[in-house]
Amino acid sequence: METRFKTLREFPLDEYLSPGATMCAGCGGMIVLRIFHKALGGNVVIVNAAGCLTLLQVYPYTPLKSSWMYTAFASAPAGAQGIRDALDILMEKGKLPQGEDLKVVVLTGDGAAYDIGLQSSSGAIERGLDFYYLVYDNEAYGNTGFQRSGATPFGSSTTTTPPTNLNPAGYSGMKKDLFEIWRSHNPPYLATIAPSHVVDMLRKIETASGFRGPKLFISLSPCPTGWGFDPSETIKLSRLAVECGVWPLKEAVYGKVRHTVVPKVLKPVEEYLRRQNRYAHLFTPTRQEEAINFIQEKVNEYWLKVSATEGHEVIKPINLAEKQTE
Amino acid sequence: MNLKSIYPPHGIRIYWGPMLRIRFHGRGGQGVKTSSRILGRAAFLAGFLAQDSPIYGAERRGAPVVAFTRISDSVILERGFIFNPHIVVVMDESLIGDWLARPLEGLLRGGVALINTAQAGAPLEVSDSHVVVRLNITDEALKIIGRPVISAPAAASAAKITGLIRKKQVLEATVEELTELGLAEETVEKNLRLVSEVYDMTPHHSIKINEEPSRSLEVVDLRSDRVVFSDILEVGNAYLRKTGNWRVFTPVVDYGRCTGCMVCYVYCPDSAVKLDPDKKPVIDYENCKGCLICVLECPMRAITFVREAKAYA
Ligand code: SF4
Ligand code: SF4
Ligand code: SF4
User: Fold this and answer.
1) How far apart, in Å, do the first and last CA atoms of chain A sit?
2) In what helix (H) or strand (E) does residue B200 lie, and over which residues does it extend?
3) Ligand 3 atom closest to residue A19's alpha carbon, by position in its atom list
4) In chain B, which residues have their Cβ closer than 8 Å to the Cβ of A66?
5) Which member of A109, A303, B148, B278 has the lowest number of beta carbons within 10 Å of its beta carbon?
6) Cβ < 6 A, ligand 2 pocket
7) Which residue of A has its CA nearest to B83?
8) How many helices and strands in chain B, by DSSP H and E?
9) B269 in A contact zone (CB under 8 Å)
C-alpha cells in the first residue's frame, strides 16, 4: 500500500481536540491522542478507562469533537464491545447509514492496559473485536501521583518504589512486555509508537485501518510531572527513548514483527535516563554503575536479538567493557 | 485569524423539541434522587420517555442535593444539568436563600416553583414571571408516616403540576421504586396514602411547554460575572476554559525566521498553535499553557519566550 504520509507536509490539518483540556502542560499523552485522532478522522467514539486522560472531560467542558464514554478502570474494551455491537445492529437494521459508522477507540493509560484492564482487553482481542486500542504509557499511575504500575521500568523511582537502602535502584522489577502479551493473541495489527516520531505513527495508523479486528497501539508518553523533566522536553525525551533503543518502534501484522525505526548506532541509555528525576538516584549522590549498566545491557540484548532475527544492518550496541576502560 | 472562525460561535443552541425539565432541590437524606426517579417512572408509565439523574458527589446527609427529571414524547438527547427548568421542586425551604444551592435560579418564564413549606402563604400565587405553589408536605408526611420522608409526595405533587400524569401512575411508580429500594410493605402502603393525599392537595395548574429555544444552557460564573457556556452538546468547548492562565512563559513567533515547517503545530499538545492560510503558526494565547515544546522543537529557532503576567477571562 502506498502511504499518504511521507513527511510532515502531509500532516492532517483537521483538528479534533480543542485547547483547554486540564492535562499537565507538555503532556506526552495529549500529543499522541491529538495526532492519533487526526489520523483516524472525525467519525470516532472514544472509550476511556480511568486514568489521566479521563480528565479530558470535566463537565461541562470537553476538548473533543468526537463522542466519548468513560468506563471503570478494568472495562474499557468491554464498553467498546457494547458500542461496536450497537453500531453494527443499527446499521444492519438500516437505522444508521453506513457512512455514519464510527471507529471505536479504547483509550487508556498503562495502569488500565498493563494491569487492571489486562483481562478485558485480552477478551476483546480474543473475540476479534473491531476496534483501536491506544495506550498512553507513562510507565506509572500518573493521575494519582505516580505509583508503580506494570509498565514501570527497572530503576525508576515512583512513590511506591522509592530508592531505599535495600533497593537503591528504585524499582527492582522489569517492565511488563505488553507488546508480547498482546502479540500472543495474534491480532491483525499491533504497534508501538512515540510522539516524537510522527510520520512513523501516521503510517502505522494508516496501515492498521486496512484491517478488521483489534488494532493495538502502545505509545510512549513522556510525562513531565511524573518523570520529572521540564515540559518543553517531552518530544526530546521521546526522541531520546527511541535513539537510545529504550523504546523500540515496531509493528506486528498477525504476529509477524518488524522494526520500523532501527537506530544504526545506539546512543547510551544514560543520555535518556539523566534527564529525568525518576532516575536521578542512579547518578547522585553516588553513581550506581551496576544499575545503569544493567539497563544498558538489557537494551543491547534486545537489539542484538532484533538484528539477528530481522537481519538489519549491524546495530552497534554500546560496548560496556570498552566504555569502562575508556 | 480569530478563534471564532475555528470554533462554533457561542450563540448556537441545540434544542431537542418539546420537553419538560424538572429540577429537584433538597438535602441529603430527604430522598431527592428517589423523588426524581418516581416522577420519571410515573411519566414513563404515562407513556412518555423520561430521564432522571442526581448529581453525585455532594450527597452527604444535610448537604444541598440536586436531581433532574426530563420528560418528553420524543427521544431525549440532552444530558447533564438542567439550568432552566419548567418546574423546580424545593423540598427544603431553607434552601431558598442558600447561596450555593440557588434553587430558583434559571426558572423559566411561566415556570412553577413548588415549595415545601410550613409557613402560611397563598397555596397558588401566579405572577407575570412565574407561579409559586406552596405545600406543607413535611407535616403531611409526619402525620401519615411519622417521619419527614417526602420523596414520593414531592414527586406526586410535581407530577400533578406537569398536567401530564395521573394519580394512578404516580401510585404505581411509587410502589415500584420504593419496593426496589427494599422498603417494607407497610411503609410503602403509608407512602401511597401520603402520595394520594398530596396529589389531591396540589392545585391544578397545567403549565405550558415552552416551544421556544430557551437560553437555557448558560450560567453566570459568579466569580467573574461572565456568562459561561455550559452545554456539553457543543463539541470541543474546552477552549472556553482559557488555560492560557496556566502559563508562566509565553512563546513568541519571529515570523522573519519562520519557514512554515509546521513542527510547532504538530507537536503542540494542546492544539494551541493554529495555522493561518499561509500555514504560518498563530499561537492561541488564551489557551497556550506555555509548555514551550514549540520553542525547543522549532528547527529555525524562530520561537522565543518571554515572561508574561496577564489574566484571560
Ligand atoms: S501526569 Fe503525566 S500523563 Fe498525566 S496528564 Fe500530567 S503529564 Fe500527562
Ligand atoms: S516550528 Fe518554527 S519554523 Fe516551523 S512553523 Fe513553527 S515557528 Fe515556523
Ligand atoms: S508553549 Fe506549548 S502549549 Fe503553548 S503553543 Fe507552544 S507547544 Fe503549544
Assistant:
1) 47
2) helix B185-201
3) 3
4) 235
5) B278
6) B 253, 258-264, 281, 298, 300, 302-303
7) A60
8) 7, 13
9) yes
User: A17 or B30, which is more confident?
Assistant: A17
- Give the separation between CA A274 and CA A320, rounded to whole angstroms: 17
Domain B3-208 has CATH 1.10.10.410: no
Residue-range domain boundaries for chain A: 8-265
**What is the per-residue pLDDT for B237?**
82
| CATH number of the structural domain A8-265 | 3.40.50.970
Q: Express each pLDDT in A153-171 by its tens digit.
A: 999 999 999 999 999 999 9
Rounded Cα gap, residues B148 and B140, in angstroms = 8
- Listed as ranges, residues in chain B with pLDDT below 70 are 1-17, 56-62, 98-100, 120, 128, 206-233, 309-313
pLDDT (mean) for A305-321? 79
Q: Residue A21 pLDDT > 80, yes or no?
A: yes
- DSSP at A226: I
**Measured CA distances, B116 to B119, B141, B165 (Å):** 9, 11, 20
Q: What are the residue boundaries of the structural domains of chain B, listed by start? A: 3-208, 241-307
For the CA atoms of B227, B232, B234, B240, the dihedral, rounded to the nearest 10 degrees, stands at 40
The predicted model scores a pTM of 0.72
Question: How far apart, in Å, are the Cα atoms of A219 and each of A24, A201, A248, B15, B173?
Answer: 17, 9, 10, 40, 50
At residue A223's C-alpha, the angle toward residues A240 and A206, to 5°, is 70
Task: Write down the mean pLDDT value for chain A.
Answer: 94
On whether any CB of chain B is under 8 Å from the CB of A285, the answer is no
Long-range contacts of B219-225 (CB under 8 A, 24+ apart): B219/B83, B219/B106, B224/B313
Residue A112 · residue A68 · CB < 8 Å? no
Residues of A within 8 A of B236 (CB-CB) are 16-18, 62-65
Q: Judged by CB atoms within 8 Å, which residues 3-22 of B form the interface with A?
A: 6-7
Enumerate residues 6+ apart whose C-beta is below 8 A from A90.
Answer: A96
Rounded Cα distance between B33 and B241, Å, is 30
Mutate one of B66, B68, B218, B235 to test the A interface: name it (highest A CB count within 10 A).
B235
CATH code reported for the domain at B241-307: 3.30.70.20
- Cα gap A12→B89, rounded to integer Å: 50
**ipTM reported for the complex surpasses 0.90:** yes
Through-space distance between the first and last CA atoms of chain B, rounded to whole angstroms: 19
- Backbone φ and ψ of B253, nearest 5°: -90, 130
Instruction: Give B28-87 as a DSSP string.
Output: BTS-HHHHHHHHHHHHHHTT-EEEEEEPPS--SBTSEEEEEEEEESS-----S--SS-SE
